[in-house]
Design a protein that fits this description.
There is one protein chain. By secondary structure, this protein is an alpha/beta fold. The chain has 13 helices and 17 strands. The strands form 4 sheets. It has a 7-stranded mixed beta sheet with strand order 4-12-11-10-7-5-6, sandwiched between helices. The protein has a 4-stranded mixed beta sheet with strand order 1-2-3-15. Strand 2 (about 35-40) and strand 3 form a beta hairpin. Helix 2 (about 65-75) runs antiparallel to helix 9 (about 290-305). It is globular. The structure holds pyridoxal-5'-phosphate. Pyridoxal-5'-phosphate binds near residues 110 and 141.
Length: about 400
């Protein structure tokens, strides 16, 4: 498939008609190929952002694009009044890879999380708990609907939207004593809801022993373990789902982002304790599970397996980390870089100072990245990234970080 000429699309002027909800960088992206992406002026960038952990297969994938074109010509949307065979196919693929039981499809991460929170409440209501409460975490990010922003642990995201939704008990990560203290004598707790690696919160991971202890705690208390794998799932960390590194099985798992390689798809995956909580009429969505989205999910999984992208995420992620550690050795030694952390192709570089300016500087250098939690450079490139491209990311990024740190010194 040919790539559109950059000249066919001009950079759009900043429009008064698009609601001003993002502080956007001053380029518009026109087309991509693999891990390269071009702007409307013809400049090329190396994509270390993947549309924020979405473009699993990169851009213009030679198998995904024809499959989606074929699907477009067949049927895009049918609606959930009828059976959608591709939903059954994608659900089976997710059930097989997760070891869970069934799936509800939606279109975004917040929708999957909203469904999880509704499911937790119904799980409680069904047990006679009329004021169900969910344990959530400091610095968590779960989305921007009223329920999910209330579950989010970031005051900046909540500011201006009071009253927040009640029913959450917040605890710090990796602190079992704090979980026990915050929930002691509270029979209304119905679920624990968390990210295995907090993405927006700055690439902070739950420890394996903590995850295992929370699993045991949920079993003892008859609570649901609900894991938000919207950013960490679909191979990003080198396993299908990040919790699999800890050998645990959640009761509920939310997915989105990488599941459709850019076509909006969200999913709520349930294990046996959660699989029958929703009954007809309890939850729904018009777009969720439409044939185009399902085809994108099915093809994403098929191509990921055919091309060994889980192993690639692990191997290339380790190489990227190694290149970053080498390129930033002096800054690590002098404390300007506090830590390089993460798993697979979900890496964070924490600086000892705010570094939001790096997004523009990286752009100027031909690299797409993001900065979260003020001080953390986040790298979530497509899972097709090659070893050579990983080295190029480090080559482009490390001098920018060094220069930024020198400005302060
Ligand atoms: C862990 C996590 N949960 C939920 C969301 C929300 O997903 P969406 O933007 O698709 O609603 C995000 C988005 O960044 C996320 O990282």
């Amino acid at each position: 498939m040919s790539i559109a000429s950059p000249a066919t699309l001009a950079t759009p002027p900043s429009s008064p008609h698009v609601m001003n909800t993002y502080g956007r960088l001053p380029i518009a992206l026109s087309h991509g190929q693999g891990c390269r992406i071009w702007d409307t002026e013809g400049r090329v960038y190396l994509d270390a952002l993947g549309g924020i952990a979405v473009n699993t297969l990169g851009h213009n994938h030679p198998q995904l694009v024809p499959a989606l074109q074929e699907q477009l010509g067949r049927i895009i949307h049918s609606c959930n009044y009828y059976h959608v065979p591709l939903q059954e196919t994608l659900a089976s693929l997710l059930v097989e890879r997760s070891g869970m039981q069934n799936v509800f499809f939606c279109s975004t991460g917040l929708e999957a999380n909203e469904a999880a929170l509704k499911l937790a409440r119904k799980f409680g209501n069904d047990k006679g708990i009329t004021n169900p409460q969910v344990v959530v975490y400091e610095h968590a990010f779960h989305g921007r609907s009223m329920a999910t922003l209330s579950a989010t642990g970031n005051p900046k995201i909540q500011a201006g939207f009071t009253p927040l939704m009640p029913g959450f008990v917040r605890v710090p990560m990796n602190d079992l004593a704090a979980l026990e203290a915050a929930t002691a004598n509270n029979p209304d707790i119905v679920a624990v809801f968390f990210e295995v690696i907090q993405g927006e919160g700055g690439i902070h991971a739950m420890q394996t022993d903590y995850l295992q202890a929370v699993r045991a705690w949920c079993d003892q208390r008859d609570c649901l373990m609900m894991i938000d794998e919207v950013q960490t799932g679909m191979g990003r960390t080198g396993k299908w789902f990040a919790h699999q590194w800890a050998g645990i099985l959640p009761d509920v798992m939310s997915l989105a982002k990488g599941l459709g390689s850019g076509v909006p798809v969200g999913a709520l995956v349930a294990g046996p304790r959660a699989a029958t909580v929703f009954q007809p009429g309890n939850h729904g969505t018009t777009f969720g599970g439409n044939p185009l989205a399902m085809r994108a999910g099915v093809e994403t999984i098929r191509i990921m397996e055919a091309d060994g992208l889980l192993a690639n995420a692990s191997a290339v992620g380790a190489h990227l980390r190694h290149c970053l550690e080498q390129g930033l050795a002096a800054e690590i030694a002098n404390g300007g870089v506090k830590e390089i952390r993460g798993a697979g192709l979900m890496l964070g570089i924490e600086l000892a100072r705010p570094c939001g300016a790096l997004m523009q500087r990286a752009l100027d250098a031909g690299l797409l990245i993001s900065v979260t939690a003020d001080c953390v450079v986040r790298l979530v490139p497509p899972l097709i990234l090659s070893h050579a491209e990983a080295a190029q990311i480090a080559d482009l990024l490390c001098p920018l970080i060094s220069a930024l740190l020198k400005e302060v010194a």
